[in-house]
Specification:
single chain, Glutaredoxin, 27 helices, five-stranded antiparallel sheet, 658 residues, alpha+beta, Immunoglobulin-like, eight-stranded mixed sheet
Length: 658
Amino acid sequence: MKKLICGLMLLFSQVLLAQQPQSRVTFEPVRAQPGQDLSITYNPAGSPLAGKKDIKGIVYTYENFVWHANDLSLKEENNSWKANIKLAKDCGLVAVKYTSGDLVDNNDDQTFAQMLIDESGKFAVGAYAGWGLLRAPNYGYSVQQYLRNANISDSAVYFWLNQEISFHPKEASEVMSVPFCQALFKMQGLSSIPRINRVVAFLSKNSSEENMLKILSIFRYPLQNKTSEDSLTKVILTNYPTGNLARLKAFQQVNLEPNFDKKVEQATAFLKQFPYKESDFDYNENNRINYTNVYLMVALQALMQKNYAKLTTLASELPFSTIPTIYYKCIDIAHKRKDLDDQTLFAPSQALMQRMESFKNQRPAQYLYLSPSEWTKEYERLFIQTFGLIQTNIYRNTGHWDEAMTLANRVQQTLQFKSAELNNEQALLLEHFKQYNQLQEVLVKSMHENQSSPEMIELLKRDYQRVKGNVEGFDDYVSGLKNPALASKELEELKSIMIKKSMPDWTMKDGNGKTVKFSELRGKTIIMDFWATWCVPCKASFPGMKLAVEKYKNDPNVAFFFVDTEERSLNYKQEIMQYIKENNYPFTILFDNKLPNQKANDEVFNRICKAFTISGIPQKLIIDKNGKLRFITVGFKGSATGLADEISAMIELTKKAE
C-alpha cells in the first residue's frame, strides 16, 4: 500500500509538472482552456539551440484523441522566441519542440507540454490520455519522431488512461478501451481479467464494427481467448461483408495465392471491392494491409502485357506510399535496362509523377505527424529520390526539353552538384538551350565536387580550347578545379581500408581466346573488374573505368582486366565483344570459367567470393606486384570522375605498398 501511495503521489506530481512553466518553455495562460488563444515562449539558453538564429518550432495538439502537427510562427524578442496559437475547442493537450537544422530541443525527452482545463477547472477531455500516451510510444498512440527514448511505465499509462475514462467516460470509454486494457493487464496480470471482461461487456452494447474490432483486439491480447476471437470473427464477417475485417481477410488471400495470374485476378477484385480511398488507414497500418503489394501485382501484369494505358490509368488512384515502388519496378528498371524505349515509358511515368505531385500540398495520413514545413521537406526528398534522375533523362530522351530543364533545376536545388548523373543531365540540357554561362558554372561546380562524366569533361575541354586556343594544360586545369579537402579526405579513407591478403590463383581466356594466367602477371599492379551484361551498375561504371584505363594506358606495370562472370545466355561471348566494340571501351575482357554441369561462368568469381567473404557485382579488386590483394571496392556511386580518381588513388597506394 505504501508503494502504491508513493507511486500515486509521483504521478500526481507529474500532473503538476505538466502545468508548470517548464524551464525553457512557458505557456500563457498557465491554465489554458480549449478554444482560447495560447502564447508560447521559448528561451533556448542552456539548450543545444542556444545562440542559434534559425530556430523553428512545431506544436502538437491532441484534439478529440487524435494528434495534429503544425508549425509555429516564431518571433524573436530579447533572446526568446514567441508564438501565438488558437486552441481547438476539442483540444486536451499541447506539446512543442524546437529545432535548428538537425538539432532538436524537446526538453531532453521530458517534453514541453501543457494539459488544458475545462470551464469547471477540471482537466479537459483528452488531457490525461494525451499526457500519458505522448510519453508511451510503444503503445502506438504517441507522436512519431517526437521523443527518442522516453517510455513511461505501464502503471503510469494505466493511471493516465484510468483518469481519462473516470473523468470523461462518455468521450473516452470506447476510444481508449484497447490501450486501457493493455496497460491494465501489463500492470496487474491475470487479476485484471474480470475488469477487462467488463470493458468487453461495455463495448458489446454498441455493435458497430469499430467496437467489435476493439473487442476482437482485446480477445487477441491481453485475453488471448482464441475461441472467442474465432467466434467474433465470424460474426463480424457476416454482419460487415465489406468492412475492415473483410478487407483484411481478402488481402491475406491475395498474399497467400502462389499462382501469379490468379494472384493478379484476386488483386484486381480486391481493389474493386475494397478501394483504397474508402479504406481505414489506421486499420490498414495496424493490420499490415499493404495496398502497395496489391497494386504492384496489377501494374506488373499491365507492364508484361504491354498495356501501358492501363498502367497510366492505374497511376491516378495510387496511394502515396505506393508510387515510388510502382515507378521503380515499372519505369526505373525498364529504363535502365532498356527493356522499353523512353517514348513508351513517357505516358505512365508522367502519370505517376503527376499523381505524386497531387500530394504535395496535402499530407497523406501516414505523414500527419509532420508539420506542414516538415512535410514539404520530406515530400521534396521523396519526390527527388523517386523521379529526379530517371524522369529528367526520360524527358530529355523524348524531346520534352522544357520539362527536363525545369525538373533538373528543381532537383539540383537539393542535390547541390553532388550527383554526377544529374550534373550530366543538366549540362546536356544547358548545351541544348545554348545557355553557356550556366553550363560553365555547372561544369566547374561539378568538377569541384568530383561528380562529373566523360561527356562533361569533353564539354569542359571544348570551352577551355575556345578560350585558350588549344588544350595544352587542360589536365592541370581540371585538377585545379577539384576540391583538395575532398580529395585528401578520400585518400585518408582509402588508406584506412587497405588490406594485404593472398589472392587465389586463376587462369582465364581473354576476348581473343588467349590464355591469361595470374601467376605470369607478377610485377604488375592488377585491377580486376568483375561484371556481367545484366548488371546495370556494372555497365554504368564503365565510363569512369575508361577514364582510369586511359590514364594508365602508357604504364606497362598496370594491367586492367574486365572479368565477365555469371552469364547464362548461349552466345554471351560474342554479345559482350560486340558491346565493348560498339561503346569504344579500351578494355581487356576475360571470361570467367564455366565448370561442367554449371549454368553460369562463375568459377573464378565464386572462389574469390569464398576467399574474401564478398558477394555481388560490380566488384573491383586491386592487387599489388607480389600478388597480394590490397583493395576491394563494391558497387558504383554514380560519378565517372570520382570512380576514376578512386581507382587511380588505390593504384598509387598499391604501387607504394610493401
